[in-house]
Design brief:
By secondary structure, this protein is mainly beta. The protein contains five helices and 37 strands. It has a 22-stranded antiparallel β-barrel. The longest helix is centred in the N-terminal third of the chain and has 7 residues, at about 1-10. The protein is globular, with a radius of gyration of 24 Å. The two termini are about 35 Å apart.
Amino acid sequence: MRKLLTIAMCSVAIESFALTAVKDTVETQTHMLQNVTITEKRTGKDVMSSAPTHTLNNGDFNALGITDIADALSRLPSIALKDYGGAGGMKTVSVRGFGDQHTGVCYDGIALSNCQSGQIDLSRYSLDNVERMALTIGDNDDIFIPARNASAAAMLNIQTPLPKADDRKPHLTMQMRVGAWGYTNPFVRYMQSLSSKLTLSVMGEYIYAENDYPFKLKNLSVVTKEKRTNSRMNSGHSEVNFRWIPSDRQQLWMKLYYYDNDRQLPGIVRYYTNLCKETLHDKNAFVQAHYNLVASNKIAIKAYAKFNWSASIYRDPLYKDGINDADYWQREAYVSACVLWSPTVNWAFDYSVDYSFNNLNSSLSTDVRPFRNSILQSLTAKWRSGRMTVLARLLGSLYYNDAKEGASSRDMRKLSPAISLSYKVLSGEDLYIRASYKNIFRTPTFNESYFFHYGSTNLDPESTDQYNVGLTWMHHYQAYTLEMTVDGYINHVTDKIVAVPYNMFIWTNINVGKVRIAGMDATFNLEHKLNKRHALRLAGTYNLQKAQNRTRKDSPYYNYQLAYIPVHSGSASITYANPWADITLHATASSKRYSNNEHYEGTSVCGYMETGLTLYRQWKWQGNTLELRGDLKNLFNKQYEIVRGYPMPRMGYMITATCKF
């Protein structure tokens, strides 16, 4: 049990060094252990965390009936998902009402970026290539991270799989997924440890979908049956990953990534006409590297580097002479260095500094070719003793803006403090109280500052304060495992920038002024082993969120809920695991929302509950695995919208066959 406790409290600072080194209670000092055998479950990190953290791993995806990235996000608390329908629809997330740009996405240790819109389209990333995803709101207990990873109000961390260094066998995964409305998705991944020092992972996938799903269009008393048109998707995605371990104290990761999506944009559903011919061709390529060094028992170093390139080619043939066509190209160069110092068993300190260069140019005659130099620095201290953990961070942000062919946005700078703590209430029970505060600063994106007719170089940046108090509990009793979290929060936003969609590619930006967001998140997870071959799992989330305009008391829109943020939302699932076929019934739900901040008549978006059914079976023989899975989505054939004017698919199916060698 003593060895188990040591491992439980030391899993972050140099993530993959567990083969040869294990960190102590402040995840810093390094000790060599021999052949440790774990015999009991450790306390979940989500429960111990001083700030809200919610995790899903690849075992949860089948157990909870999760079908794609958007479905996985809808099972996490605090998230408001924007989904434009079908396999090809853009999918972005907002956490606790802060907006998409305040939610960072970290892919294998390095944050993704989009200087043009600030929004990360999560439909670009394959759930089949995800080992683990975790949502952190505020600052997590892992202090050994780049400064940019701490610069968002919330961070979604996505981790992809790599082979074990001590497993020399090649591992091949081949998968075919087919579904309703022409959905076809082959996926292949090859992983192998080429030597004791070098591992390789290569994956590729292709997605084709017509997305011509039916929907009903209601105009007063007249109801007509329609089909989604101009919605074809043709997408490919590939990655190559290397890991080199030159010694017990060093590791180097490298990733090559490419994404290409040539899709049609279905547009907003209108009365009397369904004509739309817009297309969007997205391309994205990046290379990133990550180096870890344990310099001594008290000092560790990380270094990161990345170059990112992306292009968006937009066409609208219905506009005469292609007047609405637009091509955009953006680039980013990014480097980061982190130093972790642990002078004692109880104390740990981290200093991280990041530099990035971003620029954007387009085919528009109004393009001013903006660029930005960013310097972020963070200084973090962590203290852990007995039942108490305290973390404090100060983030310094410097943004230098300029433009080659016109006026630029002004330079911006700010210091942003954060503090969080966790206290174990009872020594013999995994019951924790946690509290956190974080101030964060978001600069306007290039679209918000420079987009023709929509942007403004005088746009004020957003400044936010988030307060959280929570209670977490994890309990093991014979065949039961129960995990619960409850968090209450209040967020204040000054000069909030709200993006309301005009279509899938153009957004209208509105500066609301002041916003107060108050709410509560709750999660529940119960596992019960009926016997050796049968088990039940119940999981659920509930979100209460009031994100209200608080700019002027004399305004008719004072206390109005912000666009696309539901007051109530949640998810639930029940899984019966058995020797024949695991069965999962799951549902996600949202209350009514509005498509604008003024709540004009006819702009409400009705609430919905979407239900699904999953059957899953696995066979193993001679070290190989065959998996079959069937999903029935939108079981009760409900028509609903997440974004107004973009109907979601009604009842459909998906069948997945996976072979692992």
